Structure formats: C-alpha cells, structure tokens
Amino acid sequence: MNSRVAVGAARFIFALVELVSLVARYIWGLDTASFAPGNFFAYLTIQSNIAFMVVCVVGGIVALKSTVDPPWLTNLHAVVLSWILVAGIVFAILVQQAGERGFRLEVPWSDQVLHFWLPAFALLEWIISRGRGRSQWRMITLTVGYPVIWGGITLVRGAVVGWYPYFFLDPDQVTDPFEFVTYSSIALLTFAVTSTGVISLARLKPVAERVSARTVRASVEQS
Hints:
Order of helices and strands: HHHHHHHH
Structural class: mainly alpha
Number of strands: 0
Shape: elongated
Largest sheet: none
Strand content: under 5%
C-alpha cells in the first residue's frame, strides 16, 4: 500500500473512532440526572475532539490526493493535536483531583478513548507519517489563544447558568482567586509547552521518510 494511502486510511479511522466515541459519550451522559446537551458541548475537551475529527477527515482526503500536506493543514493539525493532548493531561488531573476532593468521577470507555488512546495514537501518527510538513512557531499563539477566549466565555456562561465544566473555574469549588489563577496559569502553560513539543517534532522529518531515505542509501551503497 502506498504510504500516503496508509496515512489517509489512518486519519479516516481516527475520525471514525472519534465519532463513535463522541456519540457513545453523549448517550452515556443522557443517563445522568445532571446531563444537559449545552453543557456537554461546552467542555473544551469535547470541542477539541470534534475539531480533531474534522482535521482527520480533511487530512485523510488530502493524503489521498497529495504526496505532502499543505502548510495550512500542518499548522492546523499541530494546533488541534496540541489541544487533544492537553485534554488528556487535564482529564487525568481532573480524575485525580475528583478522588482527592471526594467526588465520584466515572470514566466510561468513550472517555478513555477520547482522552487517552486517541491522543496517543494521533501523536504517533504525527511523528511517523510521510508527507507531514513543518509547523510554524506562531501556532503556539493560536493553541493558547483559543482556550483563553473559551475560558472567558465559559466564565460568563457559568455565571448565567450556574454550571462550569471544570472545578477550578467554579467560584464555589476554589478556595480563593489565587487558586483559580494558579490552575488557569498551569493549564495555559501546559498548552504552550505541549504546543512547543508538537511543533518541535514537526521540525523533524517524519520517521517514515527517514527510514525510507536510509533504505535507499543502503540500496545504493550495496549496488
């Protein structure tokens, strides 16, 4: 199979798994008394995963039509990949904090896929896949900028509807403004550091291309 066809197939599989997991997570939420559709889509982690699904579909189509990803796709891919990686990190912290605060937080299989397994395989695809370009450093601004805007909207919405997606945004669950600023700063720093790592990896040639180059050199030397 052509390597770019394999890349396209992998991205389509990611998108399909993403869709199934999002639907399953939505249906699972319907069984909880506190579930509200508006709140479900208000989670940054859910929004990030929806964005990743769209990028995978677009990226899959591009991979089938072109030998390399255009710069705009590589940049967008880097931003969205950073978001879902941070979503996994934050979700893991929330699970840990929920236990410490005495809250019961269930983690269905759909959440495990969305926040742990898919980000891990997506990062692996980013490192390996042939045709992935070099992302630009200025994408760090977009990676951090969207959560800032989302946070502002979420605070306003939370004050109106009385619900916040994450405990550190809820005035009733933090001890003082310093705790809110601390958690928010850590979250934004995590986005910036993760984005820096993702873009740094994109400055390297994909593993598949490096392996192919070594194979060609070895073949030439033997001949």
